[in-house]
Write a structure and sequence with these properties.
Distance between the termini: 31 Å
Shape: elongated
Largest sheet: none
Order of helices and strands: HHH
Low-confidence stretches: none
Helix content: 40-55%
Strand content: under 5%
Mean pLDDT: 83
Radius of gyration: 16 Å
Length: 74
Amino acid sequence: MNRTLKDATVKRYYYDSHDQLRQHLADFVSAYNFARRLKTLKGLTPYEFICKTWLKEPKRFNFDPVHQMPGLNI
């Protein structure tokens, strides 16, 4: 994981302050964990698992998970 972090952040970008580095690391780790496929979820990402569960059991959810997607609404 350390190598992945260094290659994606420190070695690729220049930061003016430690706060910029911390923010970029936090954003990268969040995106990495969100898109990671997990064995316990049978190879699905957490988001894919939530969407699959929502299709099977929509009454368990208050909101449509598609509307909770982080990022731009385009």
